[in-house]
Amino acid sequence: MTTQTSPARTPQDLDEAITGGIGDSPLRPDGVLKVSGEYAYSSDLWAEDMLWGATLRSPHPYARINSIDIGPALRQPGVYAVLTHQDVPGENVYGLKVSDTPVLAEDIVRYQGEPVALVAADHPETARRALAKIVVDYEVLEPVTDPERAAHDDTLPKLHPGGNVVRYQPIVKGDPEARADVVVSDVYTLGMQDQAFLGPESGLAIPAEDGGVDLFLATQWLHVDQKQTARALGLPLEKVRFTMSGVGGAFGGREDLSMQIHCCMLALHTGKPVKMVYNREESFYGHVHRHPAKMYYEHGATKDGKLVYVRAKMYFDGGAYASKTPVVVSNATSLGVGPYEVPNVRIEGWGLYTNNPPCGAMRGLGAVQPAFAYELQMDKLATALGMDPVRLRQLNAVEEGSTMHTGQVLDYPAPVAELLERLEKLPLPPENRPGPRDIRTLPGGLSNTTHGEGVVRGVGYSVIIKNVSYAEGVDDYSTARVRLEVIGGEPVAMVHTAAAEVGQGLITVQQQIARSELGVERVNIHPADTNVGDAGSSSASRQTYITGGAVRNACEAVRAAVFDRVAQRFGEDPAALSLSGGKVVSAATGFVADLVDVLGDDAIEETREYHHLRTYEMDPVTGQSPRVHVQHAFAAHRAVVEVDTELGLVKVVQLDCAQDVGKAINPDAVVGQIQGGSTQGLGLAVMEEIKVEDGKIRNPSFTDYLIPTILDTPPMTVDVIERADPHAPYGVRGVGEPPTISATPAIVNAIRNATGLNLTHTPVTPEQLCGL
């Protein structure tokens, strides 16, 4: 309930009446439900008389389809539909950046797991049995699996009409042939990481009386899904309505379509609701992964440690279809020297088509791969120079006013050196503990494989740079509708956006902004759907920045309308008014009126957009641009590891992070994001890799694809600093991705420090550590 206040109290006193605003850490409304198992995810959806959809997928990475016989499947009792590419009512192609992905394969399959046919049946087991009865005659072809060859070898098959290069981007600054006193170089490789979200792809499509369809689903971007689906269905946008259902994690893996078009096709074809839920193995085939990379790096420096040049060539395996590969190349090249001042740069980046699994968005998009390389290079350079690796980083760190190698000037705080300084001051874990040591704290100790023999300790650092929001000329915006009215005798705000809550706490952030801007306790969040304007994707660490800006703008418009009413009724100056504790307050006279009385039976509703500063494409030859990215974020990690050098086992003992967040809208949520991102980076450092051989996934399960558990997660100290970005709403800076990026190289640098091995591949495996 709204706290009652006396008219004699000041505006500052009245601010105390509202809790849970900006800078507070209110509990998430979905938090208890999720941990108690009561939260409804999209896989829990149900409709009367619904059917179950299933997908037939190619067993081959590359093959020609000679024929498809669906007759045996159609004759199975309980089967309502079997669809192929001939049944796609609209365009049989879609794509995020490039429309190159078939809804259902026509004459060629380009990766193992590509959808070929669909089934709708009255039971999921019936649907699976029907899939087994579809007969596809394949002519198996030799797959293209080496991305570096795909970039340069014209004798390889062209997987798409334009060839095998999705995007090539060079960046040149200064003298690309510059020389230096001390030079280090190496070749770095990064394996294919999976987003490993626990909620599988799922949705429920319901045919509508107007000939359209309503889809309830888990996604990251409602409007882009809607547009792609509408084109494939041959329907106008207004007849394809999407509503967000509970999302069990995303991390980029839900930016591309999975079951959206398929589920809607089956529902429209049968006239019945259709539900689709992937099992875990199908999920590995049914969504994109992180781009594997091969990167050639060379750093040159003066004898006192100043960087002279960086030269790099990077190859990114995009798999069968483009997805976000063009953006990966953009981010990787534009961030490829790290948060360092470098006068001379020559970087080349290629994104390639292969017959490996499709790769797309994943947390830290395009910044993870080069950060692994340039941060291992910085440690290698420090060793060659005989310098402390932290001092070397601080000596070369960018700061506000620095010019990036793309030509962009950092016109906001860039506290890179400070992050490292603060990180160094955090206490290290004790190394020599008195008395016998609990073997469970040792690498492999939980399996009783060691009692401390051959265990060595190492410490490693990293600091990284990551862009926030979309870049290179994209008009990145969000839309918010805010309604203020009286319900049950108190003022209540309703916030309606299409922004996807994927576990990052966006619902809470929207409530906090509305409470602070409108001075009301109760803020409801309307379910996200396509009945309001686009909010963009829940990716690129952008939603608090962009959708937060839209909610703020809409709230400001509502507040202005309230003040206009007050000015007309009471003769108050609108410029002197504020809202606090459910009351209208004047800076000059104090309490003016209860908000309930001002609103009466009327509601005030406003819709506003927020657009960030304009960005510009990189020059295709030089990579130069006045503003490639709207904002950069910075994070630093220190990792302490113990390595059993005999067994090749690693335990991360401590993983500390210092990060600039601009403004912590919800401090507890910020810490949670940093800890979660750090754990995902830990997974990439020591265990997570999809094994692909000849285009085929060899470990499509959580039995063989390992992810960190609570037993793998070390103590973490998080040092959050707030250096406000003057261009961003409330000064915020994207939080979610940077810790994932910096955790991985810090851990690998710590392992190298412990073992003395020149490790160049992540994840680090026991075989690498044992020299096998």
From TrEMBL:
InterPro entries: Ald_Oxase/Xan_DH_a/b (IPR000674), Ald_Oxase/Xan_DH_a/b_sf (IPR036856), Ald_Oxase/xanthine_DH-like (IPR016208), AldOxase/xan_DH_MoCoBD1 (IPR008274), AldOxase/xan_DH_MoCoBD2 (IPR046867), AldOxase/xan_DH_Mopterin-bd_sf (IPR037165), Xanthine_dehydrogenase_dsu (IPR017609)
Stretches for region Disordered: 1-25, 427-451
GO molecular function: iron ion binding; oxidoreductase activity
Domain Aldehyde oxidase/xanthine dehydrogenase a/b hammerhead residues, every copy: 36-142
Pfam families named among the record's database cross-references: Ald_Xan_dh_C, MoCoBD_1, MoCoBD_2
SMART domains, per database record: Ald_Xan_dh_C (SM01008)
Protein name per Swiss-Prot or TrEMBL: Xanthine dehydrogenase subunit D
Protein source organism: Streptomyces curacoi
